[in-house]
From TrEMBL, chains A, B, C:
Record's keyword annotation contains Ubl conjugation: no
Protein name (Swiss-Prot/TrEMBL): Glycine transporter domain-containing protein
Similarity field: Belongs to the UPF0126 family.
Organism listed in the record: Nocardioides luteus
UniProt keyword annotations, A-Z: Cell membrane, Membrane, Transmembrane, Transmembrane helix
Length: 209, 209, 209
C-alpha cells in the first residue's frame, strides 16, 4: 500500500513537471490563460491517456482520480502567472523533466504488464507514456515532435528505461530493484545526454534525399 | 424515451453544424471532394470519438448508430457543392456552431457521468466532446487549434457549460434544469463573446519570451 | 486456421510496407535513427491502433502479438541504413503500398464486423485502418495528411474496398470472394490512379474562397 502511495506521488510529480513544459510552450505561442491550462493538461496527461486507451484501462486513470486533473491545471495556472521566473529556472525544469520521464516510463511499463501485455509491448507502452504527452504538445503547437528529432534526449532513454522495467519485472527481479535500475537508466541517461550534448546518428546523406 | 430522442436529435444537429465547419475549412485548404467529406466527418465526430475511447464506451457511439455517420457525410457533401452559399451564411453558421457547442458539452458530460466518472472528470469530458472535433480539424489542416488560441470563444464557455451540467446533475438538480442552465451558460457565453469581441488574458510579456 | 495465418502474413506485409513509407518520410525530415524507427512504427501500426481503440478491441492487436512490433521496427532500421537504395526503389515501394492498403482495409472491415458493427461502420473502420497510419505520419511530420489531399489515390479506393468487403461479408457472400473483390477494387484502383494520374473533383472556385 505504501509503495502504491509512493508511486502515485511520483506519478503526480511527473505529471506536474510535464505540465509545466506544456504551459511554457503555450506561453511562447502567446496562447491565452485557458490555452495555457489546456496545453499544460494535455502535456501532463496525454501519455497516460494514450496508454490507457491502448491497453483498455478505461475510464483512463486521469479521469478516475481528481488529483490527475487538479495537478496539471495548477501547473498551467502557475506557468501563466509566473512564467518569467519559470523561464529563468529552465535548467531546473529540465532536470525535473528528466526525472519525470523516468517516473512515467516505469509507471507505464508496470501498468501494461499488469494488464497482461508482453514485456516488449509493455516497454512500448512505457515509451508511449513517457513521450506521448510531449508529442501531443508539439503537434498541437504546430511543431515536429521533439521526441522524433532529439531521440538521444527522449525516445532512446525512455525506451531503454521502459525495457529495463518491463523485462526486469517480467524476469521476476525484485520490483524495487527493477524500478530503480530503470529509473537510473532513463533519467540518468537523459541528464547525461543534456549535460554532454550527445547526438544520435543521422541517416547518411539525409539532407540530400 | 422521448427525452432520449430529443437528445439524439440535438446531438445530430450539433454534429451536422460542426461537420459544416470542417467542410468549409477543407474547401479553403482546396481539398478534393473526399477530403472535404473526411474532414467534415472528423470534425463532427472527433469529440465524441475521443470521449468514448477515454471512458471506455466502445464501440464508440459514432460507429454504433448509422445516423452519426450519414449526418456528417451529408454535411460534407453539401459543403462541397454549396460552399459559396455557405460562406455567405457564415454568421448563421457561427450561431449554429455556438448552439452545437452547447449541445455537445452537455451530451459529453451526461455520458461521462453515466459511466461513473466524477463531476470534474465529466466536465473535462464535456469539454473534450465539445472542442475535440475542432481540434482534430485544425491539427489535420496544419493549424494551431483555435480552442487553444481563442479560448474565450470555445474552451472557456465549453468548460463552464460542461461544469454546470456535470455538477448540477451530480448535485441531483432536475435534469432539465441543469441541462438548460448549462446550455445557456455555454452557448449564451459563446454568442456574447462573438458579438462583443471578448478576449481572454494573455501572459504578461509573452511576446518577448 | 490456415486462412487466419494467411491473413496474418498479409497484415504483417502491409505493416512492413507502410512502415517503410514512414521511415522514408523520417529520413527526408532528417530525423535521427530512433526518430526513423518511431515514425516507421507509427505509420505501420497507427491505423490498427485507431481501429482497435474505437471498437474496443483492447489491448490493441499491435500490443498483443510481438510480430506487430518487430516488423515495423525492422522496416525502420532497414530504411535508416538503406534509404538511398529504397529511394531508388520508390516505384516498387508505391506498388507495395497499394497492395498494403488493400490488405489493411479488408483486415479493418473484417475485424469491425466481428465486433458487431454495422457494414457502414465497418467500412469506415476499414478506411481508418488503411489510412490512419499515414495520417498520423503526416501530422507528426507537420504536413496536411495526404489522404485529405490526394483522395483519388488513398481515401476513395480505401473506402470503396472497405465497403465491398464489409457489405459483401454482411450479405453473406463467400468470404474469399468478398475479400478478393475488395482487394481488387482497392489496390487495383490505387494502382490505376497512380498509373493514369487520376484526380478527384475540387470544389468550384475553392482557391478564391
Amino acid at each position: 500500500m505504501e509503495q502504491t502511495l509512493t508511486l502515485l506521488v511520483l506519478d503526480l510529480v511527473g505529471c506536474f513537471v510535464f505540465a509545466l513544459s506544456g504551459g511554457l510552450m503555450a506561453v511562447r505561442k502567446e496562447l491565452d490563460i485557458f490555452g495555457v491550462i489546456v496545453l499544460a493538461c494535455v502535456t501532463g496527461l496525454g501519455g497516460g491517456f494514450l496508454r490507457d486507451m491502448a491497453i483498455g484501462a478505461t475510464p483512463v486513470a486521469a479521469l478516475s482520480d481528481w488529483r490527475y486533473l487538479v495537478v496539471p491545471m495548477t501547473a498551467g495556472l502557475l506557468t501563466f502567472f509566473f512564467h518569467p521566473a519559470l523561464g529563468r529556472l529552465e535548467p531546473l525544469v529540465n532536470v525535473f523533466d528528466a526525472l519525470g520521464l523516468g517516473l512515467f516510463v516505469i509507471a507505464g511499463a508496470v501498468k501494461a504488464l499488469d494488464f497482461g501485455l508482453s514485456p516488449l509491448a509493455a516497454a512500448v507502452m512505457g515509451l508511449a507514456t513517457g513521450v506521448g504527452g510531449g508529442a501531443l504538445r508539439d503537434v498541437l503547437a504546430g511543431r515536429v515532435p521533439i521526441i522524433l528529432r532529439r531521440s538521444v534526449f527522449y525516445a532512446i532513454p525512455a525506451f531503454a528505461g521502459a525495457s529495463v522495467a518491463a523485462f526486469g519485472l517480467y524476469a521476476a527481479l525484485p520490483a524495487s530493484l527493477a524500478m530503480a535500475a530503470a529509473f537510473i537508466v532513463c533519467s540518468g541517461w537523459r541528464l547525461l545526454a543534456m549535460w554532454r550534448h550527445w547526438e544520435a546518428p543521422l541517416p547518411r546523406g539525409s539532407a540530400s534525399v
